[in-house]
Amino acid sequence: MTEWLNVILQGVLIGGLYAMFAAGLSLIFGVMRLVNIAHGDLIVLAAYVALMVTTTLGIDPLTSLLLVTPTMAIVGYALQRGLLNRTLGDDLLPPLLVTFGLSIIIQNGLLELFTADSRKLQAGAIEIQTFQALEGVWVGLLPLIQFLVAVAVIAALQVLFYRTALGRAFRATSDDQPVAQLMGLNTRHVFAMAMALSLAIVAIAAVFLAVRANFDPAIGPARLIFGFEAVIIGGLGSMWGTLAGGVILGVSQAVGAQIDPGWQLLAGHIAFLVILAVRPQGLFPKVSG
Amino acid sequence: MPEPLLDVRAIDVYYGDFQALFGVSLCVDAGEVVAVIGANGAGKSTLLKSIAGLMAPRHGNILFDGAPIGAAPAFEVVARGVALVPEGRRLFPSLTVEENLKIGGQSRRPGPWTLERVYELFPVLAERRHLPSTSLSGGQQQMAAIGRALMSNPQLLLCDEISLGLAPIIVRDIYARLPAIVAEGLSLIIVEQDIAQALKASSQVYCLQEGRIALHGSARELTRERISAAYFGV
Q1: How many CB pairs under 8 A join A and B?
Q2: What is the per-residue burial (b if ≥16 Cβ within 10 Å, else e) of A242-272?
Q3: Is the dihedral of CA A169, A172, A176, A179 positive or negative?
Q4: Does A179 contact B86 at a Cβ distance shorter than 8 Å?
Q5: If DSSP states are collapsed to H, E and C, what string results for A17-55?
Q6: pLDDT 10s digit of each residue in chain B, 234 long?
Q7: Chain A interface, mutation test: which of B89, B92, B102, most A Cβ atoms within 10 Å?
Q8: What is the pTM of this model?
Q9: Are A174 and B79 an interchain contact pair (Cβ–Cβ within 8 Å)?
Q10: Domains, in order of start, for chain B
Q11: Rounded-to-integer distance, Cα A263 and Cα A254, Å
């Protein structure tokens, strides 16, 4: 019994990481209807940026977030203004193709620079610290921090979207671009701010990913799939739904792995397909029509 | 003679290969109300969109307060003091009534219009400030759209068919508030299909027909006959 409780708890905590993958993806799609195929590779890119920062400055990964997060936000702003804004229009295909190309460029660029060797960020003692939550139920400190950070990120996004002028600009631009311009909003700047925010979240997710497990230039696309699945399970446009989606995906994978280690990914995909078949709009849809 | 506030000089405007406006010229003095009338597809909305910066004229100039704004994007034109109440209201459905008004004030131009002043002008909006904009009736949505445009404290307000789809009593109600708006010193261009309403509210009238100015004169001097001739092109 406690064995299963442990498994489910691990799944919930890793779900926070998936929710962070998904939040940036969902934000971009919500504001500008752009499906960012390079999202997973941008996560890996951020992990390598963190690797460089931690090794050159000798600081621990969590502290490196102070540098990596703003760096990625600037990359996001520049990427949107310099490239992606040019692909936006009535047609969904050009941004899809361009981000697909970007994904290939990032993967191969990282391969050239860092080789195909697996890397990992070293966070020191915190990586293995655990405490007993219940009789026989153990919680790792780092996964717990990761989950709490994910909840904080989602909550912050929620506040930003519904309580600030920037969030108002995001929603208005998503509703009606020409009229948003009539309100004095430069929609190209609004889009770039959304991408900057998305990549800031990517940076946070990347550091937790890179502390938790090995990474190499090729693992991006799988993170993209996890992000997509969490968004679809939770329902488009709902922040808390995205968190729920990440948790469901994480728990499914953990339970699958417990039954048979080879079933980890399969179980996650099956959970996703079942929800897509039974409830295609996701569990907590916000966007209607 | 003082320079006009808005000086549209012989603009040609295209949708791709289709030419919608042919050498259209129009002047608005400070504090003046100008009506633009014409049948469906005559180019009235296109003219307003060109002034507001949503479309760029291929030839010709638009001068506002002496500066060219023909090539400026909409968000810059708003900052200079031109606001458009778009046809069909087009409030933001994901925003509450108050958020719609607040986003109108995004450009932070100083001036007399604040949330409180808009609520004074349209008290019904104050009652519904925290409701989604989609919950308003057509007339209330029109009031919110006008209020949203006023929040940018424009010198020139462009109103595109504010009577469209509204009951006559509501239209009268909304038109009754226009003098209070003009009293704040701004100029107005109203585009209307309802000619009687347009003539009553304005001092100058331009009639568009198939993308060209077919008639221009002071609202008092124009006769019904001349207007209908220009309107239908007989």
Answers
A1: 64
A2: bbbbbbbbbbbbbbbbbeeeebbeebbbebb
A3: negative
A4: yes
A5: HHHHHHHHHHHHHHHHCCCCCCHHHHHHHHHHHHHHHHH
A6: 578 999 999 999 999 999 999 999 999 999 999 999 988 889 999 999 999 999 999 999 999 999 999 999 999 999 999 999 999 999 999 999 999 999 999 888 899 999 999 999 999 999 999 999 999 999 999 999 999 999 999 999 999 998 888 898 999 989 999 988 998 889 999 998 888 888 888 999 999 999 999 999 998 888 888 888 888 776
A7: B92
A8: 0.92
A9: no
A10: 6-232 (3.40.50.300)
A11: 9
Cα separation, B182 vs A4, whole angstroms: 72
Residue written as token pair 């909840």: A151
* CATH number belonging to the domain at A2-278, selected among 1.10.3470, 2.60.40, 1.25.10, 3.40.50: 1.10.3470
User: Which residues 130-169 in chain B show a CB within 8 A of chain A?
Assistant: 148, 152
Nearest by Cα to A211 from A15, A50, A22: A50
Q: How far off is chain A from B17, nearest CA to CA, in Å?
A: 18
